Q: What sequence folds into this?
């Protein structure tokens, strides 16, 4: 074993990014979903600017959450189908950090892009400009939590009949705390209130998820491979 | 207290009795579905036995050559 | 004690326990209902509507207790590979889900006369709703996996992730509400004061014990079904199948 | 070296085989046979530690593989039914990734290994354009780079043409000669010189 | 051919209902999704009853739309995998009415249940009681359109990699008119306005979809089977 | 009766076979052979009308099957690689549905057909519990109920045990004797008495 853990992790990360680059449609579809859902909303609720600006934080966060959930499917499915996941599970390195790397790569090609896209959509929904910064920061703290928690669900539903809808059923209830504080912070900031408490809570969630989710995902993957 | 006043529940009859009714349904459903589940398994095992799919003896590996 | 950890012995033991447990549960239900609906006087503020408490509160308490049992069973099954613990988790889920539903519905029906609305996005209500979703997720996941061993272990991981999340969800919802300053509805504590009359407390306690025993009774029945299904290749189950007369009307 | 004691494997709720015991020593090859669905793949995956046996134990140098965990996995190379090849990566990238995950770090060897399995000219093609047999060769190339003592191979010869089948047989023989262990399934006859045993899972 | 078309259609309908009964999880999951998504919105937007009641029509309709979209996956996937679809395509009866029957059965086990569930969720979102009737009627007119349009997408993405997300991209744009008029009617009715125009538009969509969608779905299925 | 003229089939962008012509008369069996991937399944599906040929024509009683459409489909019964069986329905329900979709209406015959394929006792079991061979029998039972002149069978003998394989051969023979047509693929040798032809797709 001349290769250390870090080298292997870098290897996995690089590969997943290359793959995302070679299959741009996989990356683009959740983004498109994000855009479509936020655009559907004004259609459903009506076009009054002040109503929309009041709704904007909630709608943006819910749409980001749904989009990030939809992108979970591809996190392990491809590797499961072609046998790469077996090789990963048979690696002499512990599975948890390897899985963590994969989650990171997934976030970089989904959640991160949602964050980048969000100011544009926020503008569409008349979110006050001074709340834009908060929106970006909460999404930056929150979307990794979504990827981390979601990875557990994705691993559990690997190769399971009706996996897609099932995944959403498993994952959505777990997402609520992030949603509450993410959207809460943006609303607070839009009405000029302090947002420090929200940020520290979101940070705490992120730390907790970082500590537990990769481990649970690794366990779930071993179960799915059994 | 007359039965009538008892059932009237001080004007809250609709809420109280539908709550109790729903709870009763839930409790009964629990019992019935649990009992039926076990019966269904038994019935299924009977069908399986009748269809000749008796639990297969665990296969035993045989060494062919040394 | 140890010998009852084998499915075969447990099956027999449960079979003997169920009638007794069931009988005690039934008696407690009758006593609780009599005391709660007939003997206890109306509340001076809420009139008779408070009587919903005697089913709502036990349902709500049990909904949380059963989730703990489910997660505990999952943990034991996952770590020590004990089949009975897996079955306990699987069998608990539908019971817990139905009791959660009961807490939600009875609570709503109580809310209308006291709050004037069936539903508010109050902290406790919201987290109870999410608990219901967690149950549904567990049930759906186990239903979707055909291999019983895999299904049990996947369910266990999910239940454990859920159990870590429940306090987080609970407190986030509490803070969410305090931050949002919700609709002016007094907290539950104000409505039912701590100095509750004994004539109201007794039926509540009796009903709570009744719900508790009810859970165990149904759990045992369900576990017996699970045992038969998962041990169907063993000789003793074949023996039971042969000994049972045909049951009509239960098509697989 | 690798010792199997009283192994029982189940799938669904069905027992595939029960109380299987054997051991494989350095320099030995074990050929596992059996009809379709008799449980060969299940056995191999259990030997890798991917599946948990319903009963029994697997020991490597006297210690249970559940205890050894990563240390055991570091000793083995498994090639299963699926090749572990991602169609959108090139052959070289796939092999690079495979060896990296396997814990070896030998960038230089990649080209040599591809050469030795006859894929030198296809190295930069996306793997999805490779033919079935070429994909199989690419998967088997991992064996050459990784240099692990224990090889666990599930139908390695499928889709291989006669030439490369013969090459594989030689590879197996030289691995055995170097003190390696091989556990293999194959519906075809193996022509490997060395100490080979057979075992059948049909009851 | 002693069996006439009607008999065969009845046969298919009955079978699909039986199957739904034997796999209750498949039926329940989209419903759970509907409930969860509608519950996410208050968490994102905040619990104030009057804000919620304003949002309610849009949220309910968007959630119904997403749930009905997610349930599309199972419309043909099972039959495709096990070969039943081939048998259907080889039936001596024209494929269009048979497919129509399948769509009907699918709606009865998804859209219809969403309609039944909607008043409960409307209550949770504080929708004024006098708008409840409109909500139910618009959903009753609209969800069949969703199932009909969705069936085309489901048939086109059969057996395609990444079908789930692709399906949503194909189908969502088609859903927008239904969403606009469905949610519009409920909003109008909540503010006491007339809703006749909306109803006739939704009715027109339904008729159009009834006329064309089964035919397009049948064509798409034949292409997928090729 | 069934006449194939200059048929060319492609898959992806690859031509599988080109300019194939043959005809099958009542009482005749055509056995299509070829290596894996040579296009047998593709040919059968084209003959059914499921796939469109790249070129050429298929005629039934002199009329193109594209013109006949439903009338042609009413004459044939196709059993493909997949059995068309839904695991959550019972064996009887599956057969009932299959015949109903096939356009036959013969509730009474279901039980008899199950009996004749040896599934009488498994009639009420969910089909997912049937073994592979039993599933295949259930699919083949459709042939018995439907009573169509043209049978198109893709590897009907896979997973069947020797006994039932022999029964199948007899069925085929009696179908031919009654003036039926059979087009069949099989890697095994067919032992059907009657007029049988062979055709190979290997180039
Ligand atoms: C849908 C509506 C409701 C839901 C989901 C709900 C849920 C719950 C839950 C989860 C608990 C257990 C809390 C714990 O022990 O930590 C509980 C307890 C309780 N609920 Fe409700 N509730 C609802 C409506 C009401 C209403 C309207 C009242 C009275 C006006 C009420 C009175 C109580 C009381 C007195 C307790 C026991 C006290 C305690 O454990 O703190 N609930 N409820
Ligand atoms: N989840 C499951 N539930 C029930 N049975 C299963 C499950 N997974 C696999 N099986 C069955 O387990 C058996 C063992 O499969 P395995 O892949 O080990 O066979 P094999 O010997 O490798 O066969 P082959 O020669 O075809 O590769 C098969 O009969 C299969 O149908
Ligand atoms: N979409 C596609 N694109 C390219 N090639 C394809 C596609 N689908 C199938 N093929 C190829 O077409 C060929 C014909 O497949 P077909 O199933 O007709 O073969 P077969 O003769 O029935 O083989 P078998 O004996 O294995 O059943 C195969 O080589 C397959 O790889
Ligand atoms: Mg195998
Ligand atoms: Mg074929």
A:
């Amino acid at each position: 074993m001349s290769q250390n853990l870090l080298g292997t992790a870098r290897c996995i990360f690089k590969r997943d990014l290359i793959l995302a680059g070679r299959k741009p449609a996989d990356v683009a579809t959740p983004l498109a979903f994000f855009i479509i859902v936020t655009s559907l909303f004004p259609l459903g609720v009506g076009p009054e600017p002040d109503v929309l600006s009041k709704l904007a934080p909630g709608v943006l966060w819910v749409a980001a959450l749904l989009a990030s959930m939809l992108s979970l499917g591809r996190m392990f499915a491809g590797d499961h189908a072609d046998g790469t996941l077996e090789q990963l599970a048979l690696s002499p390195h512990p599975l948890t950090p390897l899985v963590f790397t994969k989650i990171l790569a997934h976030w970089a090609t989904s959640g991160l892009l949602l964050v980048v896209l969000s100011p544009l959509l926020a503008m569409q929904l008349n979110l006050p400009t001074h709340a834009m910064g908060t929106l970006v920061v909460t999404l930056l703290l929150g979307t990794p939590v979504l990827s981390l928690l979601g990875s557990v669900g994705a691993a559990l539903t690997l190769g399971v009949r009706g996996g897609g809808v099932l995944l959403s059923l498993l994952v959505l209830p777990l997402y609520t705390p992030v949603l509450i504080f993410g959207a809460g912070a943006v609303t607070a900031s839009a009405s000029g209130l302090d947002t420090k408490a929200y940020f520290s809570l979101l940070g705490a969630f992120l730390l907790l998820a970082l500590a537990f989710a990769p481990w649970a995902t690794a366990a779930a993957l071993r179960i799915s491979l059994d | 207290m007359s039965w009538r006043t008892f059932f009237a529940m001080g004007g809250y009859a609709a809420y109280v009795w539908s709550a109790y009714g729903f709870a009763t349904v839930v409790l009964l459903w629990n019992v019935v579905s649990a009992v039926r589940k076990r019966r269904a398994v038994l019935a299924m095992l009977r069908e399986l036995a009748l269809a000749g799919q008796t639990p297969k003896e665990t296969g035993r590996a045989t060494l062919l050559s040394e | 004690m140890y010998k009852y950890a084998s499915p075969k012995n447990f099956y027999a033991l449960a079979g003997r326990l169920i009638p007794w447990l069931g009988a005690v549960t039934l008696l407690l239900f009758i006593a609780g209902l009599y005391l709660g609906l007939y003997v206890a006087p109306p509340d001076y503020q809420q009139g008779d509507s408070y009587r919903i408490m005697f089913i709502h509160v036990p349902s709500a308490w049990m909904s949380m207790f059963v989730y703990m049992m489910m997660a505990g069973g999952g943990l034991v099954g996952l770590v020590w590979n004990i089949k009975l613990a897996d079955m306990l988790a699987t069998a608990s889920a539908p019971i817990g889900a139905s009791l959660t539903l009961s807490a939600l519905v009875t609570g709503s029906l109580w809310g209308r006369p006291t709050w004037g609305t069936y539903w508010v996005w109050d902290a406790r209500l919201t987290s109870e709703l999410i608990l219901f979703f967690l149950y549904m997720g567990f049930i759906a996941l186990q239903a979707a996996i055909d291999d019983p061993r895999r299904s049990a272990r996947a369910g266990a991981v999910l239940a454990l992730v859920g159990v870590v999340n429940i306090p987080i969800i609970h407190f986030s919802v509490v803070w969410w509400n305090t931050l949002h300053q919700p609709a002016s509805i007094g907290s539950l504590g104000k409505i039912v004061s701590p100095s509750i009359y004994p004539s109201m407390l007794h039926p509540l306690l009796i009903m709570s014990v009744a719900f508790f025993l009810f859970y165990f009774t149904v759990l045992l029945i369900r576990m017996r079904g699970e045992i038969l299904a998962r041990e169907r290749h063993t000789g003793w189950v074949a023996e039971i199948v042969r000994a049972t007369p045909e049951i009509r009307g239960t098509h697989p | 070296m690798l010792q199997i004691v009283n192994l029982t494997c189940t799938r669904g709720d069905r027992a595939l085989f029960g109380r299987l015991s054997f051991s494989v020593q350095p320099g030995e090859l074990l050929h596992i046979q059996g009809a379709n669905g008799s449980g060969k793949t299940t056995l191999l995956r259990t030997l890798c530690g991917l599946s948990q046996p319903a009963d029994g134990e697997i020991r490597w140098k006297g210690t249970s593989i559940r205890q050894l965990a990563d240390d055991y996995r570091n000793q083995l190379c498994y090639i299963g039914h699926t090749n572990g090849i991602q169609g959108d990566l090139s052959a070289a990238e796939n092999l690079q990734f495979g060896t990296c995950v396997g814990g070896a770090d030998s960038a230089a060897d990649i080209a040599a290994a591809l050469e030795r399995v006859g894929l030198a000219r296809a190295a930069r093609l996306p793997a999805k354009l490779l033919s079935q047999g070429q994909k199989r060769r690419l998967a088997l190339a991992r064996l050459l780079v990784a240099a692990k003592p224990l090889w666990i191979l599930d139908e390695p010869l499928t889709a291989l043409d006669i030439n490369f089948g013969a090459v594989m047989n030689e590879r197996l023989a030289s691995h055995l000669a170097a003190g390696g262990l091989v556990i293999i399934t194959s519906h075809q006859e193996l022509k490997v010189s060395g100490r080979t045993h057979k075992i059948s899972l049909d009851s």
In short: Chain B touches chain F at residues 47-48, 50-53 (CB under 8 Å). The radius of gyration of chain B is 27 Å. Helices of chain B lie at 3-8, 13-50. The first strand of chain B starts at residue 62 and ends at 65.
